[in-house]
Design a protein that fits this description.
The termini are far apart. This protein has 3 helices and 7 strands, in the order αββαββββαβ. It is rod-shaped and about 145 Å long.
C-alpha cells in the first residue's frame, strides 16, 4: 500500500496596500471655495474685457484722410482721399467719410500731406474760388514763365510785356503787373506755349483777360520762403 501525501499549497502573501503619504487627504472645503471664487473672478474679468473691446469698436467712426500729396490751391479728387476709423472723440473734428461727396471738387487752402486727417479748415468754402476771386486762363509763350517751377498755390506776378516795336527803358514807367495765385498748370503745346489758370481779384480779372488775349504777358514766381 502506497502512502499518498497531499501537497499543501504555499501560503499566499497578502497584497500590499500603497502607503498613504503623510498629510495627504481630501482638499479642505475652504480651499475649494477659494479656487471656485478665483475662477469666477477670472471669468468675470474676461467677460468685462471683451465687452469693453466690443463697445470701443462700436464707438469708432469713419473719417476722411489724405491719400497722397495735394498742393495748395489744387482741386481735390476722389483719388486724393482715403478713410480711417477713429474713436468718436468730440475733441477731433475731421470730415466724416459720409461727406466725401461735398469735398470732391473743392480746393485745398494749404498743402495736404499723405496720412493726415482732413478738416474743413483745409478746404475752400465751396467748389468755387474764394469770395472776391475769379479764375482767368493765361497762355504764356515759351520762355515767358518758369513753367517747371510753377505749382498750384504759388503766388505769382503777371507782367505785361512790350510788343515787337516797343522798347523797354529803365527810365520809362515800370511794366504793369497783377498779383495772382496759380490754380493749374497745363502741358506745353507743340510750340512750347503753356496755358496757366490763375486766381485773381475780381477787379483785375477783366484787365488780365484782355492782356492774355494779346499773348504779351509773362509770369514771375514770387519767393516761396
Amino acid at each position: 500500500m502506497k502512502n499518498s501525501t497531499s501537497q499543501i499549497p504555499a501560503p499566499t502573501a497578502a497584497p500590499m496596500r500603497p502607503e498613504t503619504p503623510i498629510g495627504a487627504g481630501p482638499v479642505p472645503r475652504r480651499r475649494k471655495r477659494s479656487m471656485l471664487v478665483l475662477g469666477a473672478l477670472v471669468t468675470l474679468v474676461g467677460v468685462l474685457g471683451t465687452s469693453m473691446l466690443v463697445r470701443s469698436a462700436g464707438d469708432r467712426v469713419d473719417v476722411l484722410a489724405v491719400a497722397r500729396e495735394v498742393p495748395a490751391g489744387q482741386e481735390i479728387t476722389a483719388e486724393d482721399l482715403t478713410t480711417a476709423a477713429l474713436p468718436n472723440d468730440p475733441a477731433l473734428a475731421p470730415v466724416k467719410a459720409s461727406e466725401k461727396g461735398r469735398v470732391i471738387g473743392r480746393r485745398a487752402t494749404a498743402p495736404l500731406h499723405r496720412g493726415e486727417l482732413l478738416t474743413d479748415a483745409q478746404l475752400h468754402g465751396g467748389k468755387t474760388l474764394p469770395a472776391g476771386q475769379e479764375l482767368v486762363a493765361v497762355e504764356v509763350q515759351r520762355g515767358a514763365a518758369p513753367v517747371d517751377a510753377l505749382a498750384p498755390g504759388d503766388q505769382v506776378k503777371i507782367v505785361a510785356t512790350p510788343g515787337k516795336d516797343e522798347q523797354v527803358s529803365k527810365k520809362g514807367p515800370a511794366p504793369e503787373e497783377i498779383a495772382a495765385q496759380i490754380v493749374k498748370v497745363g502741358a506745353p503745346n507743340a510750340s512750347g506755349a503753356v496755358v496757366v489758370q490763375v486766381s485773381v481779384a475780381g477787379t483785375d480779372s477783366s484787365l488780365l483777360a484782355a492782356r492774355a488775349a494779346t499773348g504779351r504777358v509773362a509770369i514771375v514766381l514770387a519767393s516761396k520762403g
